[in-house]
Amino acid sequence: MKIDKNNHAPLYRQVQEVLEEKITSKQWEIGYQLPTEQELADHFEVSTITVKRAVMELVSKGYLYRQSGKGTFVAATTNEMDINKLLVTTSVEDVESPHELLSFSMETMQGTMASKFGLQPGAKVFKLERLKIENDLPTHLEYSYLPFEKCPNLTPNDVNNELIYNILKKKYKIPLGRARMFVKPYIADSEMAKRLQIEPGTPVFEWEKFTYTKQGEVIEYSKFYVRPDKVTYYTEITF
Asked: Domain 79-234 adopts which CATH fold?
């Protein structure tokens, strides 16, 4: 594993390419633990900052994942998910949606949160914090809000391993109209990183979702923080 310091390409990019070749050629197989950043820096004769940037680029591309307190590992092939499936209002199949419920509480809407629902400050909402689990690993950290007025008697058992869309449809008979979702990058803080089992400072996807009733009212507001090493999103256009 060598790089050319006379090459015009940035050093971190050269390190990244060498490490990526190790992975794609299967010299480093799934689950392989990389040398430490200091060991890689010594080998390439570059700074640990250079190595860290190269590693983080490969984490963001899904080739590697970092586990807090343990190290950096070669990732398995990421799951592909159609972006449009995040916006559907019902599940196609009657299957469980594995989630770990972290907290369930009642809150009073103020300011920004009240405006998102188009309600007056002081209105009550249920706040759910859940982890989406796939293959025994957390992939999404979810924060969801549902208005108490529209969803009375909601219980923690209702949201255990269930899609919120299905709760709205089956328990409350609410006709859903549409959903809008916005995506942007986000840097995981220490608490989020602990929940997702990644290193603090790891880039993740932030998905912000609004679900509307047929009458155009916001019935659910959610934010999802998604590990980039576990899911690759795509969309398909038919001509």
From this structure: Chorismate lyase (3.40.1410)
